[in-house]
Amino acid sequence: MKEFIFKISTKLKDEIKDPEGEVVEKIAQRLDICKNFKVKKGKFYEISILANSKKEACEKIEELAQKILINPVVEVYKIENFEEL
Amino acid sequence: MKEFIFKISTKLKDEIKDPEGEVVEKIAQRLDICKNFKVKKGKFYEISILANSKKEACEKIEELAQKILINPVVEVYKIENFEEL
Predict the structure, then answer these.
(1) What is the residue extent of each domain of chain A?
(2) Distance of CA A50 to the CA centre of its chain
(3) Interface of chain B against chain A, CB under 8 Å?
(4) Whether ipTM exceeds 0.90
(5) B2-84 — its CATH code?
(6) CA–CA separation, B47 vs B72, rounded Å?
């Protein structure tokens, strides 16, 4: 078995309101750091997986993202990095 | 003023236990997706900011990260992308 490293990022779809980003904007205004900016928050997962082939690793990562990491109604995911050790 | 786009990622320091990553590992095992893997979770922020210069934008972003986005005792941040529009 080989080790594969993935980085998956997830975030709310563009049309969905992002309350956590808005909180950062408001606090920054209140602390007088900055007034003119927009924040969108997301999550990422660095995943190390043992699999027999790249194909198997990718299939498991897709399954993991769709079943566990996101709510497909409001979120999207993107596999950002891939590395074979 | 010009618009600058930053992407900042934050995560727990390597020596700090990551319970959210462990939850993903356990659920994946329970759903029989995969047994051999490790997950580390983090957050990212896509930030659009208006500033007079790149220097000013960078200073504000550093201040924002240190004062609002992370707890410096247990977390680290990294500016991943920078773009000037």
Answers:
(1) 2-84
(2) 21
(3) 1, 9, 11, 21, 24, 27-28, 31, 33-34, 36-51, 60, 63-64, 67-69
(4) no
(5) 3.30.1280.10
(6) 20
